[in-house]
């Protein structure tokens, strides 16, 4: 059901109904009707969700495939850079260490899955 998937996206993004509705240019009441299954979003609304958040429309409509498209991560880069530059040099260094360790763990995990 599209409504459940919309709610899942919104929660994954950490947004309230009001924040999500505003970001895709619909009313909060309309979003509530979508999420409850009373109404269904039209193509324009689906396109705004996909454009704004990199959501895979095929997943949104059918539940098949990944929730987000890989290319959507390109939209995150400026936000990550802004966060990183707002940190002190010490915190930047620590964050880079953590990310490096996380990357190593994920690579090892991926190799185990491929075997």
CATH homologous superfamily annotation of the largest domain: lambda repressor-like DNA-binding domains
Instruction: Characterize the largest beta sheet: strand count, sense, and whether it forms a barrel.
Output: none
Number of helices: 7
Order of SSEs: HHHHHHH
Give the helix/strand class: mainly alpha
Could you please say which CATH topology of the largest domain applies here?
434 Repressor (Amino-terminal Domain)
The percent range for helix content is over 70%
Q: Which CATH architecture of the largest domain would you pick?
A: Orthogonal Bundle
List segments where confidence is low: pLDDT < 50 over at least 5 consecutive residues.
none
The CATH first-level class of the largest domain comes to Mainly Alpha
Rg computed from alpha carbons, rounded to a whole number of angstroms: 18 Å
Number of domains: 2
Distance separating the two termini: 35 Å
Question: Could you characterize what this model shows?
Answer:
This protein has 115 residues and is mainly alpha-helical. The chain is 70% helix and 0% strand. The chain is built from seven helices and no strands. The chain starts with a helix and ends with a helix.
Question: Main traits of this protein?
Answer:
mainly alpha; 434 Repressor (Amino-terminal Domain); 2 domains
């Amino acid at each position: 059901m599209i409504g459940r998937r919309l709610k899942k996206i919104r929660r994954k993004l950490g947004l309230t109904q009001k924040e999500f509705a505003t970001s895709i240019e619909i009313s909060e009441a309309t979003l509530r009707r979508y999420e409850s299954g009373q109404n269904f979003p039209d193509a324009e609304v689906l396109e705004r969700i996909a454009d704004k958040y990199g959501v895979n429309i095929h997943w949104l409509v059918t539940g098949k495939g990944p929730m987000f498209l890989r290319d959507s991560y390109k939209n995150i880069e400026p936000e990550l850079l802004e966060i990183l530059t707002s940190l002190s040099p010490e915190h930047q260094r620590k964050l880079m260490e953590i990310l490096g360790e996380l990357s190593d763990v994920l690579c090892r995990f991926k190799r185990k899955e491929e075997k």
